[in-house]
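Response to reviewer comment R2.3. The reviewers asked that we include at least one raw input/output pair. We reproduce the pair for 4-azaleucine resistance probable transporter AzlC here without editing.
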Amino acid sequence: MNNNENTGVLKKNMVIKNSSLLVGLKAGIPIAIGYIPIAIAFGLVAKSNNIPNHISIAMSLIVFAGASQFIAVNLLSLATGYPEIIMTTFIINLRHFLMTAALSQKLKKCLSKKYLLLLSFGVTDETFAMASLQEKKLAGDFILGLNLIAYLAWTGGTAIGVFLGAGLPTIIQSSMGIALYVMFIGLLVPNLKKSNSLLTVTFIAITISSTLYYLPFFKALSTGWMIIITTILASIIGAILFPEDGGNDE
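Raw output as returned:
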């Protein structure tokens, strides 16, 4: 292969990578829009609990896990010990092991371990849902774009909440807490219309979660463990009911 051919291949690869990144960024726009009010709400909660501004922003930059951050702030305000905070957030975030393991099966196999580590940091419930609903094998740059726009929205929203959010009307501040649920429903419902298997697994997950929540026998379980158990059981039942062959890399 001569130099001209090598240059042509490199340019083609760069175009593909840039295209995948842009597609990921565009796909993540609804997630980013949903994250901003929730991140602002987090900034407001942290501010109201007298958490230093730089600590609140650092949490979003380093932890990047909405539910864990809200819980950590509440525990800090109650003067809870650090080991308990770490254990609580660890249990809540155990589901990320499952999500990244499942997502790795949809990625093309030519990615380095360092790149996979970078991608795993940015996986959230919403980016996982968006990525897992794609029908073909995914380029790493698509996941990078998807995660990046969500990350920027979350950290930027936190900064807005910390520095500017205190001036928002009370009614707007109180309404931001439900934004996460609204966004997730908005991502899920359109895809339920296209997939009977997804609809079935969703109802299975709802049934398991409701059983764990309402039956007195399971009252001792924390929210984190309920999420983990629901995810594992729903995934196992879904895999048994709707087995699918992994496709070839595209």
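Residues 61 and 146 are 16 Å apart (CA to CA). The chain has 13 helices and no strands. Further pairs are available on request from the corresponding author.
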